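From the shared-data thread, chain only:
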Amino acid sequence: LEAAARLTPDNAEVNANLGGVYQAVGRFEESAAAFQRSLEASPTARGFTNLGTLQYLLGRYTDAADAFERAIQLDGASYLRWGNLGDAYRWVPGKKQRSLDA
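Structure, as tokens:
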């Protein structure tokens, strides 16, 4: 995947997959960068969900909520995306009601 990303740096799918691998092996900053490159090439609900999940796992709940909101703007029909947003807001000071609303 790293070679594919070097050869096709604007390939959203390659960067999304590379971000997932980096996340799985604990290379979190590289994961975030790969997810961001994927989103720059093709902003998708899945891509924002991936980035939000990484941010959530790192305890960056405000950033996670922002990413989950972007995912919902692109595809608000998924109850999982709403659940992710609610989980993230639960940990953001002053966002308890938004957590419940989500």
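The CA atoms of residues 20 and 90 lie 25 Å apart.
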